[in-house]
Specification:
The chain is α+β, with helices and mostly antiparallel strands. The strands form four sheets. Strands 1, 2, 3, 4, 7, 12, 14 and 16 form an eight-stranded antiparallel β-sheet that branches. The longest helix is centred in the first third of the chain and has 16 residues.
Length: about 270
């Protein structure tokens, strides 16, 4: 099966049962190079950030607990890059990626969140176990999906993704700030989910891409290596999703951009 083929029955069954499916070699290495180069150009100051883009320093750097040896060593991630043609057009709107997303969202697709995660060494950088639906004030949850692609090797040593298989079959749970010395902004975690909870570590090679449900409990550990753990990701939703009355998103103000199909009146 080629990387561009639709999901097999087994892959879709795995997603439905476990809340995620990992496609090895979804992108070729040469397809990833422009994303890394663009990121480095932005954080070095060679290129200005696109309008609306957030370049986020790690909290330990921002508070002076760590002095990085390079500019890239200070950055936890960039997000909301819908104004950057290389990242948004090259990744979020990639036809192969949209073809993979469409079975979950339907033919009318919106981009609802974008990130390029750097996870530098020498900082805490953990992301507690959480559910992405917390950030999205619309439903149905089954019409929302994340795509997360490794740009460099993601291992247990450098803080790969961890998931709790089957947790997407539950509900959105209360979240809270973890009791850590240094926590990046909005890195909240599910209340009551501790280190003893069984989990699966998703070690990934460059180009491997995992698709996962917004209720799936997931997170990532500390980068204990000397390098970076870089990945690029996007969340998508059906353009038919509707807002939940009275619900305010944890991270408000993000634009939702139609990337395939058509708009629907009264929807997101």
């Amino acid at each position: 099966m080629t990387a561009s083929a639709p999901f097999t029955d087994d892959e879709r069954r795995h997603y439905d049962e476990h809340g995620y499916v990992l496609r090895r070699g979804f992108f070729e290495p040469h397809e990833l190079k422009p994303f890394v180069e663009r990121f480095l150009a932005i954080v070095s100051g060679e290129l200005p950030p696109a309008p609306g883009m957030l370049v986020m320093r790690d909290v330990m750097v921002a508070k002076g607990a760590v002095t990085p040896s390079s500019r890239e060593g200070a950055i936890a991630k960039i997000q909301d890059f819908q104004g950057d043609p290389v990242l948004f057009e090259g990744y979020v709107k990639h036809p192969r990626l949209l073809d993979a997303v469409e079975p979950f969202t339907g033919p009318d697709v919106k981009s609802i969140h974008t990130m390029l995660i750097n996870k530098p060494p020498d900082v805490d950088g953990r992301h507690p176990l959480h559910q992405d639906l917390l950030y999205f004030p619309f439903r149905p949850a089954d019409a929302i999906v994340a795509a997360w692609t490794a740009l460099e090797p993601c291992t247990r040593e450098n803080g790969c993704l961890v998931v709790l298989p089957g947790s997407h079959l539950g509900e959105l749970m209360p979240h809270e700030n973890p009791d850590w010395d240094y926590v990046n902004h909005l890195y909240v975690g599910v209340r009551g989910v501790g280190e003893e909870t069984p989990r699966v570590h998703l070690e990934m090679a460059p180009g491997d891409t995992v698709f996962f449900h917004p209720i799936l409990v997931h997170g990532s550990g500390r980068n204990r290596s000397r390098g970076f753990r870089r990945a690029i990701s996007a969340h998508y939703a059906s353009a038919r999703c509707r807002y939940v009355e009275g619900q305010t998103p944890v991270a408000a103000g993000r634009p939702y951009v139609l990337v395939r199909g058509r708009e629907h009146e009264g929807c997101i």
